[in-house]
Amino acid sequence: MKSEIILRVEILHTRFELGKQKTVTAVDGVSLHLDNGEILGIVGESGSGKSVTVRSILRLLPSNAVMKADNIELDGEPVNHMSTKDFRRTCGGKFSMIFQEPLTALNPSFTLGWQIREVYKLRQGNMPSSAIQQKALEMLRRVKIPDPEKRQREYPHQLSGGMRQRGLIAIALASEPKILIADEPTTALDVTVQADIMDLIEELRREFNLSVILISHNLNLVVQRCDRVMVMYAGQVMEEANSERILQNPMHPYTIGLMTSIPDINTPDISLVSIPGEIADLGNQHQGCPFHSRCSKAMKICPISRPSWIEIEPSHWCACHLHINKAGDCFV
User: pTM here?
Assistant: First the structure.
């Protein structure tokens, strides 16, 4: 029987070796799952480990990275025992990634059409050139690039930011993936284009029966567009629940801080509340909660003991001592 969970990751750790005496732990014990057809949002500040988490799963790490996981399963099959070469050959075609900088992600030396056709050539090398040309044009139409016959002959610098992003989506879908990973897909785009790109991703998710991981620092975008939200900080997962519960009842002080820093056009007179301090130093191992130095509700136990991952309400998980022992004294 086919699993409803297409991707499962258990206790993922990734560190970067920066010389003999310096190690940065970018992902510190992350577990996640992705259901068939779902959009999972991973949200957090820059440096929280969002992108490194998915790059670790995809084996897209530099040579100084060390990654290990207790278990990684794709469609119910364990894959973490595979070598990187075997993983890319066996599983690589099941993933596609939309990178956050379309101008740098696209090759400036080749036309957009050429870059899409190359994916088809790699995937279906025995297909006639005329058929590949037609499939590339059809994919450009599917991602709603205007005048695709003209745009396929243009280079990335000749395209607008929105069209470049649509081109990246076309390249990603040409490999016929099961899982689409969108890493900050609306960065540097204006608000109306951002909405168009997210509408397109949701539409293509349904058309191609995709499972999607959306990475963003924008909690408002994630709760609006995703089925489930995972909040990360300093390489750890702080909270996880469906979007409605996160929006209506955030439980971790970090999630609450992210929520209160979002402007609301319905309450323009209310001042935004920023999260004080800076993100924790990933070069230091955190015995306790990595957010404790920025948390207004921190207790004595917070810097010395890592909070357990507990289910506060059905399918709503949080790692915070406030919900384990609410009787503690405040930490100063």
Answer: 0.92
